[in-house]
Amino acid sequence: MLMREAKNGLSDEVKRIAKVEGVEPERLRSLIARGLVAVPRNAGRDFPGRAVGMLMSTKVNANVGTSKDYDDCDEEVRKAKIAVQYGADAVMDLSTGHDRDSVRKSLIKELDVPVGTVPIYHAARKRRNAVDMTSDDLFNSVREHAKDGVDFVTVHCGVNRNSLERLKNDPRLLNIVSRGGALTLAWMLHNGKDNPFYEEFDYLLEIASEYDLTLSLGDGMRPGCMADATDRPEFMEFITLGELVRRCREKGVQCIVEGPGHVPLDDVELSVRAMKKLTGDAPLYLLGPLVTDIAPGYDHIVGAIGGAVAGMAGADFLCIVTPSEHLALPTVDDIREGVIVGRIAAHVADTVKEGQRERARLLDERMSRARGDLDWKAQMGLAIDPEKAERIRGTRMPEGETCSMCSDLCAIKLVRDALNQKAMDKSDQRGA
């Protein structure tokens, strides 16, 4: 197991990741050993690991997956490949359709990035009614996914009797919007029992330890709208997840913590810092966060705004939001757009993040120099989405070296030519 290995010494894998991230290998080893950095990778898979957590570059995850209405395995695999092609660091399979096993196994086979799942979706589909699933269904689904090679799983362990009681005492406008959280809550109410993933957490740790499976402690009580943000049910879950993080570290199991969905802009930093404090600086994985509720069709932009602010405050892992959020299953184009916008948010965060600031700003400086030189080839090479940049420039290409916005009145060209002419005049005067 990577976390235990890190406690015993420096491995070649840690050295490789340290070089990629621009940190000292010994420092990275210590961060992994203490649970401050996670590298999700199943013991049965072999691909270059991606580090998530303190001092690491901000990573981006893309969600794919079938539904009952759109159950096309090949399409979801295509989406996942597009996501990786455009820079996603990980892919989660949220399939709830009939062919969900094929999707999961295909993603594991086809991708060389971490693959995550939500086993409760699988367990719920085993029964005619989701509330009839058993504790064995839940744990067997986790084991099945781990055995297949899944690298990380979302488990909503923080939805328990304590958080349910807090939700009853502090009603919300939208109650629970997490699908896994809702399934857990419905099961608890129907069966009159506590969440098996919480009650039998030690068993979950045994499975995770066997396969070096990273646990993504899910945000089942995340707010689904501005009105419900930073409330008591959310913070009750934070507290529970912090306790579970400690238990993971004691057993040498890697874990990350998932965070809130809809948060007003001025509460994003508060939420991130609170989660980091209560979970012992565990790697933090956020959906968005979304900072307004009124932009359907543009929620990928809303999520990028929130993600950049969250990353600046300490978030480590951003789940992309697509233009289809709240509206429909995303298309391939939606996934591509979401990944690109998510990567922009991650880079913006890295320009101010400890451990990554200098490396990230160097890219911006290189772009600035290319613009100053009117070097279009270099600009396209540095662009997060060079295809779109080239397409836009190509459709309105000027005759000269400038863009068609300013043309011969390009500020950069005017000043450059004026300075060059001034230098030539001085040279001529010296020659005379």
Provide the fold topology:
Elements lengths: L1 H7 L3 H10 L3 H9 L3 E2 L13 E2 L5 E6 L8 H13 L4 E4 L6 H11 L4 E3 L1 H7 L9 H14 L3 E4 L5 H9 L9 H13 L4 H4 L1 H11 L2 E4 L14 H19 L4 E5 L5 H14 L5 E4 L11 H15 L3 E3 L12 H19 L6 H16 L3 H7 L3 H10 L15 H21 L1
Parallel strand pairs: 3-4, 3-10, 4-5, 5-6, 6-7, 7-8, 8-9, 9-10
Antiparallel strand pairs: 1-2
Helix pairs in contact: 1-3, 2-3, 4-5, 4-15, 6-7, 7-11, 8-12, 13-14, 14-15, 16-17, 17-18
- What is the share of helical residues? 40-55%
Termini distance?
A: 77 Å
Number of helices: 19
**Largest sheet strand order:** 3-4-5-6-7-8-9-10
Shape: globular
Describe the structure.
There is one protein chain. The protein has 432 residues and is α/β, with parallel strands linked by helices. The protein is built from 19 helices and 10 strands. The chain has helices at residues 2-8, 12-21, 25-33, 73-85, 100-110, 119-125, 135-148, 161-169, 179-191, 196-199, 201-211, 232-250, 265-278, 299-313, 332-350, 357-372, 376-382, 386-395, 411-431; strands at residues 37-38, 52-53, 59-64, 90-93, 115-117, 152-155, 214-217, 255-259, 284-287, 317-319. The strands form 2 sheets. An 8-stranded parallel beta barrel has the order 3-4-5-6-7-8-9-10, surrounded by 7 helices. Strands 1-2 form a two-stranded antiparallel ribbon. The chain starts with a helix and ends with a helix.
